[in-house]
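Here is an idea for our session: we take a single protein and study its fold together. To get us started, please write out a protein record for me. Start from the sequence, derive the backbone structure tokens from it, and show both lines together. Go ahead whenever you are ready, and we will take it from there:
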Amino acid sequence: MYLFGASGHGKVIREILEAQGAVVEAFIDDNPAISQLDGLPVLHQADGLSPVIVSVGDNRIRKQIVGRLAGPFGTAIHPSAVVSPSAKIGEGTVVMPGAIVNAGAVIGKHCIVNTGASIDHECVLGDYCHVAPHASLCGQVHLGEGVLVGVGASIIPCVHVGDWAIVGAGSALICNLAAGTTAIGVPASILNH
């Protein structure tokens, strides 16, 4: 297994993979000044290396890197995460320690379900989403592509969030949110740009 992104996020994913019993061979990174991370070599070319997980937290950058790679892509699910057998997890996705993914949830490709996050029944997450630590999605929430749900944020049942929208840290989203917008506060309101 290879991790594209030699950073703190990569260190966490390495530990998740090792807890699964997988072997991480090396990190890959575009920065030629980085030659090793936590005792592993950092390579600067990804050609022919697989499977890969893109270990970059920024949704847009993660999507750009995935577009450059041929795959196949791995998946990392920490043993302490609780994932329903009826949930579906897309390739390249990472489910961190203490996260919960409940019945019928569908998690897209290259998503991050971060530490202690809760994804309730029948939620749908588009590709490249990031549900930050301790954020909670109630049942039947739908997130479009690239949505960021900030640390400790909550979304009530049946809410739809458009592509590349942001729900700010600690916010409580109680209504649908249009694509490309940012909502903050309790209850959350749209942030004027």
